[in-house]
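name: query_chain
kind: protein
chains: 1
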Amino acid sequence: MKKEVKKKNKVEKGLYWTPRILSIIFILFLTLFSLDIFSEGMKFWDIVLGLLIHNIPVFILVILLWISWKREIVGALTFFIAGLIYIGFILVNSIINGFEWFYLTWALQIAGPAFIVGYLFYLNWKKKNKI
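structure:
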């Protein structure tokens, strides 16, 4: 009986921490894309402004992750909607510029992890509300 309780506690802790850790990794991954702002001849304030503009989605996700830490449904909706918004941007870009095959890989790299994190937050919220 005690082994089952210990195993259940490990699963519950894993379900609690996995979406939080993955969302932090995902946000750090998105932050890496802002590093393309650095180029020769740019002034300091141009770089700062470019970094701020490039990281607006990151700032929004950090704030929503902070809220999601205790309210998992917010995390589920946030990351699911973030994935949908990114796919929407890809669709608009392919309508304007024509479809390229690598748009699919972009969608898998960005929207895929966002959907996974959102689903894990949803599972955590569902488990929490069953009790």
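note: The chain has one domain: 2-130.
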